[in-house]
């Protein structure tokens, strides 16, 4: 296969040259300008789109096994490919929970022939109940890349201490859902002026910050690696920033919606439940802090927390709707609009957040854009205007705050596992 008219972006490419890429048997055979297709060789002209090593979303919910009415591994991978991701790490709040090796192996087996690499994140505790540690070494041998009880925090400090000690022996991170439940619930949105006006119970930022502070201290004490999931407040970013300065082994991620939308959207959108997620949308000050954290390196990775819910689950009163939105299909557009077009970060810096850092955190090898390497590629542009209509949703669920929104910049395809996926708008 010959892929023509592409601008490479990676740690060693700035996207300022145009090349063609020849692929044979899933490997990059040749990179050069003006390559011509040989007899019998399939060719595709990308018209000057960018190409980078394949992106990774390190925080998604694929829902299978147990909640296939929301999403399946196959439909989740369709959404990932449409968003430009060649790899995802999926959270363990499935049914059964991913707390035993057989569930890890089931997920890997189901994704074997799909064009997206699926890396299961296993539970920290058995059945995600927060009481006793799961069989971490066995889960790692089965293919798990990290541990998390996501959806719920590891609430007991002694359990978290033991988890960090065990996981550090395996050189794997604990990804915690940072939430002090006694402070946060029954909150349905960010606690503040908007929640007061709307008469909704709010979740204060301190509910997130208290748990992050605890986990940073435990990571310092044990030497373990704590990864802060879906960070969302200004003070939380400051806590991680100071911890990194002290040399504590802490990393973090931010969802695209948390550096784009604020809690005011819930009022503007008349209680649209597709704006309800956890952690909730915060204030403009918090949004600005997410951008600042990305710029100065405090925040390592961009993720989505892709959380599908069936239409009937979301089409209820706001306080009864489940938390979570889908996000993989729109992540690049939001990133492009908020970070690249505003010149906060350049393309190479964004590749750190989308390609290299997620895999570094999970101890995975990053794909390379060079001759002789396995072809694991994302194709994208930064200037195409398009509308994210329900027809363009590849996920099984439709719970996105960006439905019918005009966006700029799109992932136009991926190549991975010897398969080319081209994303056509419907």
Automatic annotation (TrEMBL):
The keyword Glycoprotein does not apply. InterPro entries: DHOase (IPR004722), DHOase/Allantoinase_Hydrolase (IPR050138), DHOase_cat (IPR024403), Dihydroorotase_CS (IPR002195), Metal-dep_hydrolase_composite (IPR011059), Metal_Hydrolase (IPR032466). CDD domains: DHOase_IIa. Its EC number is 3.5.2.3. Pathway: Pyrimidine metabolism; UMP biosynthesis via de novo pathway; (S)-dihydroorotate from bicarbonate: step 3/3. Zn(2+) 2 binds at residues 150, 177, 230. Binds 2 Zn(2+) ions per subunit. Keywords: Hydrolase, Metal-binding, Pyrimidine biosynthesis, Zinc. Zn(2+) 1 binds at residues 59, 61, 150, 305. Residues 51-235 form the Dihydroorotase catalytic domain. Its cofactor is Zn(2+). GO terms for molecular function: allantoinase activity; dihydroorotase activity; zinc ion binding. One of its GO terms (cellular component) is cytoplasm. HAMAP family: PyrC_classI_B. NCBIfam families: pyrC_multi (TIGR00857). This is Dihydroorotase. The gene is pyrC.
């Amino acid at each position: 296969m010959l892929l023509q008219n592409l601008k490479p972006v990676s740690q060693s490419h700035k996207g300022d040259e145009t090349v063609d890429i020849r692929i044979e048997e899933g490997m990059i055979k040749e990179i050069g300008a003006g390559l011509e297709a040989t007899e019998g060789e399939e060719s595709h002209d990308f018209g000057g789109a960018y190409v980078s090593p394949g992106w990774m979303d390190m925080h998604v919910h694929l829902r299978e096994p147990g909640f296939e009415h929301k999403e399946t591994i196959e439909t989740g991978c369709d959404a990932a490919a449409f968003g430009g991701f060649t790899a995802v790490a999926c959270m363990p709040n499935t049914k059964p929970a991913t707390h035993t090796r057989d569930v890890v192996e089931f997920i890997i087996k189901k994704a074997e022939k799909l064009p997206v690499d699926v890396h299961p994140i296993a539970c920290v505790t058995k059945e995600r109940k927060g009481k006793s540690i799961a069989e971490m070494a066995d889960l790692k041998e089965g293919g798990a890349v990290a541990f998390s009880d996501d959806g719920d925090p590891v609430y007991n400090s002694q359990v978290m201490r033991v988890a960090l000690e065990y996981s550090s022996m395996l050189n794997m991170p604990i990804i915690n859902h940072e939430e002090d439940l006694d402070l946060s619930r029954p909150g349905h949105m960010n606690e503040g002026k908007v929640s007061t006006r709307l008469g909704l119970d709010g979740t204060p930022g301190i509910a997130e910050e208290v748990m992050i502070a605890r986990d940073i201290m435990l990571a310092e004490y044990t030497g373990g690696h704590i990864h802060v999931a879906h960070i969302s407040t200004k003070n939380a970013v400051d806590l991680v920033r100071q911890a990194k300065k002290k040399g504590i082994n802490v990393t973090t991620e931010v969802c695209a919606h948390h550096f784009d939308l604020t809690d005011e959207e819930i009022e503007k959108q008349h209680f649209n439940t597709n704006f309800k997620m956890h952690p909730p949308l915060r204030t403009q000050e918090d949004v600005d802090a997410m951008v600042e954290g990305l710029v100065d390196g405090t925040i390592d990775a961009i993720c989505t927390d892709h959380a599908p819910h069936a239409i009937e689950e979301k089409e209820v009163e706001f306080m009864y709707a489940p938390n979570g939105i889908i996000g993989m299909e729109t992540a690049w557009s939001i990133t492009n609009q908020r970070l690249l077009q505003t010149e906060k970060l350049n393309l190479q810096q964004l590749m750190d957040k989308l390609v290299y850092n997620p895999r570094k955190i999970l101890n995975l090898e990053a794909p390379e854009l060079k001759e002789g390497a396995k072809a694991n590629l994302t194709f994208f542009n930064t200037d195409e205007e398009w509308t994210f209509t329900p027809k363009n949703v590849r996920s099984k669920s439709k719970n996105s705050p960006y439905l019918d929104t005009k966006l700029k910049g799109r992932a136009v395809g991926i190549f991975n596992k010897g398969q080319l996926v081209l994303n056509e708008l419907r």
